[in-house]
Specification:
Elements: E1 4-9, H1 16-30, E2 37-42, H2 48-55, E3 61-64, H3 81-86, E4 91-94, H4 97-102, H5 107-119, E5 123-128, H6 132-136, H7 140-151, E6 161-165, H8 179-197, H9 199-204, E7 206-210, H10 215-222, E8 229-232, H11 239-249
Helix pairs in contact: 1-2, 1-11, 5-7, 7-8, 10-11
The protein binds 2-phosphoglycolic acid (PGA).
């Protein structure tokens, strides 16, 4: 059985002090209560060190929101996988739709980032998802399949990979995909993985859902057969809500 994974993506929110406070509150509320589910939090880069110290002895994983694909060098404003590793990050998110939409990420650059992270032994959460226009044109499956295939190009082993299906129209909008709508896309992603890697890797791969997950809809989403947890934006900025979502998965 796949262990569910719930990750809070804090995006460009919280100063270091605010992030530390949030991490402490989450830790306190979760206590030892996270057995059934893997939990991670992804603060912005400046807060990784302090948040990392707070959760160091807990089961909560430190997650970064992005990484560059080069080892090091003249890439102003970028952060390497080795830097993230040195801060104790267990996972890095790549290909978030906000990166694709505002920062020119393509399936090709997502693939480079993913491969670099895996080659350094870091686990990766790769995001995929269609825009509203694509959904309305009936090409959701084609778009998502393409993102999965191109994002995973030349990746031989899915051991360190988690996928996150995040319909762009559901992110930060309050509009959630219905559990059935999400399940349909998750099942099609798993079918693509089965085609690429075979049965066993497809059964083992965890696929998170993201896009306006809240305490009120989490349990229903997580009860779907191919939804293995969530990538949580807005609701992860409040300890109570995030912990309620984690408990819905555990
Ligand atoms: P949201 O964001 O929960 O605020 O919709 C999800 C995400 O972007 O990962």
């Amino acid at each position: 059985m796949r262990k569910k994974i719930v990750v809070g993506n804090w995006k460009m929110n919280k100063t270091v002090a605010e992030a530390s406070e949030l991490a402490s509150a989450i830790l306190e509320q979760l206590g030892n209560g996270i057995v059934g589910c893997e939990v991670g939090i992804a603060p912005a880069f400046p807060s990784l060190t302090e948040v990392g110290k707070i959760i160091e002895w807990s089961d909560i994983r430190l997650v970064a929101q992005n990484c560059h694909y080069q080892e090091e060098g003249a890439y102003t404003g970028e952060v390497s996988v080795r830097m993230l590793e040195s801060l104790g990050c267990a996972y890095v998110i790549v290909g978030h739709s906000e990166r694709r939409q505002y920062f020119g990420e393509t399936n090709q650059t997502v693939n480079l980032r993913l491969r670099k992270a895996l080659s350094e032994g870091m686990q990766v959460i790769m995001c995929v998802g269609e825009t509203l226009e694509e959904r309305e044109s009936g090409i959701t499956e084609r778009i998502v399949t393409e993102q999965v295939r191109e994002g995973l190009k030349d990746v031989g082993d899915l051991g360190g990979v988690v996928l996150a299906y995040e319909p762009v129209w559901a992110i930060g909008t309050g509009k959630t995909a219905t559990p059935e709508e999400a399940q349909d896309v998750h099942a099609s992603i798993r079918a693509t993985i089965q085609d690429m890697y075979g049965d066993l890797p497809a059964q083992h791969l965890r696929i998170q859902y993201g896009g306006s997950v809240k305490p009120s809809n989490a349990a229903q989403l997580f009860s779907m057969p191919d939804i293995d947890g969530g990538l949580i934006g807005g609701a992860s900025l409040k300890a109570n809500d995030f912990v309620a979502i984690v408990k819905a998965a555990g």
